[in-house]
Amino acid sequence: MDRIAHIQEMEKKQKRISIMISASIDAPPSINLAKIVSIDNRVYDLLERARKEKRRKDQTYINYRKELEQLVGWTAKDKRLKSSDAYEVAHQALCEALRY
């Protein structure tokens, strides 16, 4: 393959990748908060504690986020919660609970 053909092929691949990325960004999450809580009730408990939290400091958010990361996302123990969608949904709920 000559250099021009190679560049054209790379451009086509980049275009396909950007289409896939934009499609995945526009897609709704494959999981919702109700499903997350039904899988692991500790997420609900964490969110309830966060709602009652009086301190509104960055460190408070960081502490809750670290705890949340153990329950959902790539480090979750339950394989059904090992996804960025699960983390995104739960993280958004945490930010809302903390009014952060």
Query: How far apart are the termini?
Result: 53 Å
Mean pLDDT over the full residue set: 84
In what range is the share of β-strand residues? under 5%
Order of helices and strands: HHHHH
Oligomer: single chain
The helix fraction, in percent, is over 70%
Structural key phrases:
100 residues; mainly alpha; 72% helix; 0% strand; elongated
Structural notes for this entry:
The protein has helices at 3-26, 33-39, 41-52, 58-71, 84-98. With 100 residues, it is mainly α. Helix 2 crosses helix 3. The longest helix is centred in the first third of the chain and has 24 residues, at 3-26. The radius of gyration is 19 Å and the shape is elongated.
Task: Give a quick summary of the entry.
The chain is mostly helical and 100 residues long.
Secondary-structure topology with pairs:
Elements: H1 3-26, H2 33-39, H3 41-52, H4 58-71, H5 84-98
